[in-house]
Automatic annotation (TrEMBL):
<feature type="transmembrane region" description="Helical">
    <location>
        <begin position="59"/>
        <end position="78"/>
    </location>
</feature>
<dbReference type="GO" id="GO:0022857">
    <property type="term" value="F:transmembrane transporter activity"/>
</dbReference>
<dbReference type="Pfam" id="PF00893">
    <property type="entry name" value="Multi_Drug_Res"/>
</dbReference>
<dbReference type="GO" id="GO:0005886">
    <property type="term" value="C:plasma membrane"/>
</dbReference>
<feature type="transmembrane region" description="Helical">
    <location>
        <begin position="84"/>
        <end position="103"/>
    </location>
</feature>
<keyword id="KW-1133">Transmembrane helix</keyword>
<dbReference type="InterPro" id="IPR045324">
    <property type="entry name" value="Small_multidrug_res"/>
</dbReference>
<comment type="similarity">
    <text>Belongs to the drug/metabolite transporter (DMT) superfamily. Small multidrug resistance (SMR) (TC 2.A.7.1) family.</text>
</comment>
<keyword id="KW-0813">Transport</keyword>
<keyword id="KW-0812">Transmembrane</keyword>
<dbReference type="InterPro" id="IPR037185">
    <property type="entry name" value="EmrE-like"/>
</dbReference>
<keyword id="KW-1003">Cell membrane</keyword>
<feature type="transmembrane region" description="Helical">
    <location>
        <begin position="29"/>
        <end position="47"/>
    </location>
</feature>
<dbReference type="InterPro" id="IPR000390">
    <property type="entry name" value="Small_drug/metabolite_transptr"/>
</dbReference>
<keyword id="KW-0472">Membrane</keyword>
<protein>
    <submittedName>
        <fullName>Small multidrug resistance efflux protein, SMR family</fullName>
    </submittedName>
</protein>
Length: 106
């Protein structure tokens, strides 16, 4: 269950990062409120995840999910460009997240 909580926390991190961008520097109230809700959800599920997982596992996976998710949102929703070399490093990040999960023993 801790891994599921961690997944939800990571996806909520992508949510709040996306709505933060859409808030235009917190000048759009609806997106600002969605950012705050996303942060609360993300941190809440991270707290739950760290009850069953060590911080040394949970935190890097949480930030990794957020990083990869934010990259995908940037490319898909905001038409941001990434070079092929950057995509290579994104793939390495995904491999690192999977490697932490597989080798953590949790």
């Amino acid at each position: 269950m801790a891994w599921f909580d961690l997944l939800i926390a990571g996806l909520a991190e992508v949510w709040w990062a996306t709505t933060m961008k859409m808030s235009s520097g917190f000048t759009k109230l609806n997106y600002t409120l969605l950012t705050i809700v996303g942060m609360v959800v993300s941190f809440g599920f991270l707290i739950r995840a760290t009850k069953g997982l060590p911080l040394s596992i949970a935190y890097p996976v949480w930030t990794g999910i957020g990083a990869v998710g934010a990259i995908l949102v940037g490319v898909i929703l905001f038409n941001e460009y990434l070079s092929l070399l950057t995509w290579l490093f994104v793939i390495l990040l995904v491999i690192g997240i999977i490697g932490i999960k597989v080798t953590s023993g949790h």
